[in-house]
């Protein structure tokens, strides 16, 4: 792929940064004060979820105010003495390029672990105290108690997730400039999926539009669906075919791993991968069943420390099955449970309606009706439909609804 | 008279008509005489007359106004304790109709409530205890929290003995002009034991099938109500065919829509039936029972039906293969 669009279309001016008007206003006011030499806070902490324009705003401001921008990732600074020296010089010396001022950006200060890395935090505090230029910090989550000292010394500026309409209009603008014809629904779908993260949305758009001049809803669905399923196939394979516990556990480090879905996928595919070894299948299922139990306990008791046992059991535990056959490439299946449940949904709903009606007449619960009364009614219906009709009439139940339920049962 | 379900048609209307359970009935009649009532807890296995006793009690207590003075709730079908509490609250606000100074709330399947929900229910019971009496119905007393038990007069319903069940079945058969043979009656008893609801349901279905209800006709009904998949599933698992067994399991779970617990119970019954159990090597028998029991525990704890049952089937398949 050529230049990433997130770089290519980074806003040049402050007013081009999408959304978050209040944050922009607060930032500009702070910067103006700084440059006029009367700022109360020497540093600004821009915080908010990824892709909401924190870094873009600093870039745009630097350009617009003609400031020399020095940018570094906070945790890199900590790990590199050279980088630290560079920042230090930049903060305390005049600009090399004869520009009138500088702006220093330290990204992801919440990436510094205040517990393990107290030195990193102290260093940033020292930067703030000594800087002669505006110092901007960014963070996704600044609320760690250990970051309190830092918060006290900074002007806090909050960035909110961007609205769907804002994201859609940015995407539409990019399409226009790239000469791509694109349905509004497609852009809106991308925007919705991004959950307020403009960077993710632009990346998605570029991926979908790659090599195309026209994108339709079909492209989006096909691509999105395939990507998702392919991911799951890969995850299942890395668990079931893991050669070491580390390999099996590696899937847990994936962001946004849907572990409940993973359990369904594993349940579906364990027998395909581990056949013909019944011991491997039994062991793997045993671990999965235990993972399931721990997950329920975590949910029921709200004791989320139990989640770790569930996650390790469903990965390392499953992969530790004895007598695993040598790895072979088998075709994995989509969980049948999900397909079967959606196929039988209408039938189950109709049955529930019938059962509830009988339950009220017979002073029992609908479950008892399903278990202990409906099966006998089906027998009667099969032997003598008129008799069944009469019984149902006495129970005020529509014969038609009952018939659909009974016919399904007969299959 | 139009046809209806015999379990409703032959449900006793008066306390005296209730078969067996003499001690329970005689004490309930005392309450009627005194026109006073403590909170009640009826406990016992299905089909032994708990709900019927509550309804009869209400009829005799309130006479013609009985419907106006009772609220029937089934804990399994109400959406949560908050809904139950609201319905109780709305109902308890109105005055009882007639001379008895309190109304009755019948809460069926109360042992299906979580203990938290039961705690909330306890407070509700206290709040309205002046104007209402509760009749809680449960299969197991032990699943009702202590503070509720201690506020209730507990009545234990026993499984109905064989002779009483057969007598009732003969009575119904006579009223319905149905011929039933002794071995037919026997077959119904074998399946239903002391569960009269089940016995009557079998009789009604069997009578729809043929002129005379014989042993064969009863077994035909039972064959139809027990999905053949249960039998197949157990057979396949014991043959070591896990994938085959899993396919049957899924039909039961998703096409029949049976609960994991019901399927497990059917599997257990099938495995314990002499026909199957005698074929299982003796050193495996105890292990199998333990495995099924453990799975039962896990499903009750909230485990995923398919995953837990598949784990069971995989273990059965493995044991069957490695021992044979």
Secondary structure elements and pairings:
The complex is a heterodimer of chains A (411) and B (324).
Chain A (H helix, E strand, L loop, with lengths): L4 H4 L12 H15 L7 E5 L6 H11 L2 E7 H6 L1 H12 L8 E7 L10 H13 L4 E5 L8 H6 E5 L5 H15 L2 E2 L1 H11 L3 H12 L4 E2 L1 H24 L4 H5 L9 H16 L3 H24 L5 H13 L16 H8 L1 H18 L3 H18 L1 H10 L4 H12 L1
Parallel strand pairs in A: 1-4, 1-5, 2-3, 3-4, 6-7
Helix pairs in contact in A: 8-9, 9-10, 11-13, 13-14, 14-15, 17-18, 17-20, 18-19
Chain B lengths: L5 H4 L12 H13 L4 E5 L6 H13 L7 E5 L5 H14 L9 E6 L6 H13 L4 E7 L7 H6 E5 L5 H14 L3 E2 L1 H11 L3 H14 L2 E2 L1 H11 L2 H11 L3 H14 L4 H13 L1 H4 L4 H19 L4 H19 L1
Parallel strand pairs in B: 1-4, 1-5, 2-3, 3-4, 6-7
Number of domains of chain A: 4
Which CATH class of the largest domain in chain A? Alpha Beta
Through-space gap between termini of chain B: 59 Å
Radius of gyration of chain B: 23 Å
Per DSSP E runs of 2 or more residues, the count of β-strands of chain A stands at 7
Spatial strand sequence of the major β-sheet of chain A: 2-3-4-1-5
Spatial arrangement of strands, main beta sheet of chain B:
2-3-4-1-5
Q: What integer is the average pLDDT of chain A?
A: 84
- Unreliable spans of chain B: none
Q: What's the number of domains of chain B?
A: 3
- CATH class of the largest domain in chain B equals Alpha Beta
Distance between the termini of chain A: 53 Å
Measured by DSSP, the beta-strand proportion of chain A falls in 5-15%
How would you describe this protein?
The complex is a heterodimer of chains A (411) and B (324). Chain A is an alpha/beta fold. Chain A has four domains: 5-158, Rossmann fold; 164-215, Helicase, Ruva Protein, domain 3 (Orthogonal Bundle), CATH 1.10.8; 229-335; 344-410, no CATH class. Chain A is built from 20 helices and seven strands. Chain A is elongated. The mean pLDDT of chain A is 84. With 324 residues, chain B is α/β, with parallel strands linked by helices. Chain B folds into three domains: 6-156, 3-Layer(aba) Sandwich (Rossmann fold); 162-225, Helicase, Ruva Protein, domain 3 (Orthogonal Bundle), CATH 1.10.8.60; 228-323, Zinc Finger, Delta Prime, domain 3. Chain B is 60% helix and 10% strand. Chain B contains 16 helices and seven strands. Chain B has a five-stranded parallel sheet, with helices on both faces. A two-stranded parallel sheet of chain B has the order 6-7. In chain B, helix 4 (80-93) links the parallel strand 2 (70-74) and strand 3. The mean pLDDT of chain B is 92. The chains are: A alpha/beta (411), B alpha/beta (324). At the A-B interface, helix 13, helix 14, helix 16, helix 17 and helix 18 of A face helix 9, helix 10, helix 12 and helix 16 of B.
């Amino acid at each position: 792929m050529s230049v990433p669009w997130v770089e290519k279309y980074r806003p040049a001016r402050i007013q081009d940064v999408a959304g978050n008007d209040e944050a922009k206003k607060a930032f500009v006011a702070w910067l103006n004060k700084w440059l006029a030499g009367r700022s109360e806070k020497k540093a600004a902490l821009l915080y908010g979820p990824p892709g909401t324009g924190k870094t873009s705003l600093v870039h745009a401001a630097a350009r617009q105010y003609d400031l020399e921008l020095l940018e570094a990732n906070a945790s890199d600074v900590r790990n590199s003495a050279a980088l630290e020296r560079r920042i230090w010089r930049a903060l305390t010396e005049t600009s090399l390029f004869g520009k009138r001022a500088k702006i220093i950006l330290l990204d992801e200060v919440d990436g510094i672990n205040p517990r393990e890395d107290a030195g990193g935090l102290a260093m940033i505090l020292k930067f703030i105290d000594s800087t002669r230029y505006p110092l901007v910090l960014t963070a996704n989550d600044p609320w760690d108690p250990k970051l309190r000292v830092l918060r006290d010394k900074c002007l806090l500026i909050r960035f909110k997730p961007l609205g769907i309409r804002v994201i859609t209009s940015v995407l539409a603008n990019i399409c226009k400039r790239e000469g791509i014809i694109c349905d509004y629904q497609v852009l809106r779908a991308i925007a919705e999926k991004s959950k307020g993260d403009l960077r993710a949305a632009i990346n998605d758009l570029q991926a979908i539009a790659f090599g195309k001049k026209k994108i339709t809803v079909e492209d989006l669905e096909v691509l999105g669906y395939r990507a998702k399923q392919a991911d799951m196939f890969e995850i299942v394979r890395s668990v079931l075919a893991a050669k070491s516990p580390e390999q099996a556990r590696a899937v847990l480090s994936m962001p946004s791993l849907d572990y409940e879905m993973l359990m369904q996928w594993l349940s579906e595919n364990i027998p395909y991968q581990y056949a013909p070894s019944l011991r491997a299948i039994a062991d793997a299922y045993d671990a999965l069943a235990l993972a399931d139990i721990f997950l329920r306990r975590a949910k029921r008791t709200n004791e989320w420390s139990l989640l770790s046992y569930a996650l390790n059991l469903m990965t390392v535990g499953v992969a530790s099955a004895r007598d695993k056959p040598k790895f072979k490439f088998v075709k994995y299946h989509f969980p049948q449970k999900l397909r079967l449940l959606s196929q039988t949904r209408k039938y189950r709903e109709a049955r529930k309606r019938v059962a509830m009606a009988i339950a009220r007449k017979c002073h029992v619960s609908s479950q008892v009706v399903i278990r202990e009364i409906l099966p006998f009614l089906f027998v009667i219906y099969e032997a003598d439909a008129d008799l069944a009709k009469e019984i149902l009439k006495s129970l005020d139940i529509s014969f038609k609804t009952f018939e659909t339920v009974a016919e399904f049962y007969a299959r | 008279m139009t046809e209806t379900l015999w379990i409703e048609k032959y449900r006793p209307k008066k306390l005296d008509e209730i078969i067996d359970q003499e001690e329970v009935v005689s004490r309930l009649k005392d309450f009627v005489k005194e026109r006073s009532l403590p909170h009640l807890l009826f406990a016992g296995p299905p089909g032994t007359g708990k709900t019927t006793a509550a309804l009869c009690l209400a009829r005799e207590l309130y006479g013609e106004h009985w419907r106006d003075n009772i609220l029937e709730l089934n804990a399994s079908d109400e959406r949560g304790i908050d809904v139950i509490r609201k319905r109780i609250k709305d109902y308890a606000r109105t005055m009882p109709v007639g001379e008895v100074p309190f109304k009755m709330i019948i809460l069926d399947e109360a042992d299906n409530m979580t203990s938290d929900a039961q705690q909330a229910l306890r407070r509700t019971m206290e709040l309205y205890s002046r104007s209402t009496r509760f009749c809680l119905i449960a299969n197991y007393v032990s699943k009702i929290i202590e503070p509720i038990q201690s506020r209730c007069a507990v009545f234990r319903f026993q499984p109905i003995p064989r002779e009483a069940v057969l007598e009732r079945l003969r009575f119904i058969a006579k009223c319905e002009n149905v011929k039933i043979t002794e071995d037919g009656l026997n077959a119904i008893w074998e399946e239903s034991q002391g569960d009269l609801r089940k016995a009557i349901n079998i009789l009604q279905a069997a009578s729809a099938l043929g002129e005379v209800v014989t042993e064969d006709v009863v077994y035909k009904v039972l064959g139809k109500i027990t999905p053949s998949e249960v039998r197949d599933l157990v057979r396949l698992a014991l043959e070591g065919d896990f994938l085959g067994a899993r396919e049957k399991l899924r039909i039961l779970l998703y096409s029949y829509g049976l609960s994991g617990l019901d399927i497990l119970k059917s599997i257990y019954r099938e495995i314990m039936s002499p026909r199957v159990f005698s074929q299982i090597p003796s050193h495996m028998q105890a292990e199998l029972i333990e495995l099924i029991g453990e799975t039962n525990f896990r499903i009750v704890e909230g485990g995923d039906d398919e995953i837990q049952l598949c784990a069971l089937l995989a273990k059965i398949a493995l044991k069957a293969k490695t021992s044979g």
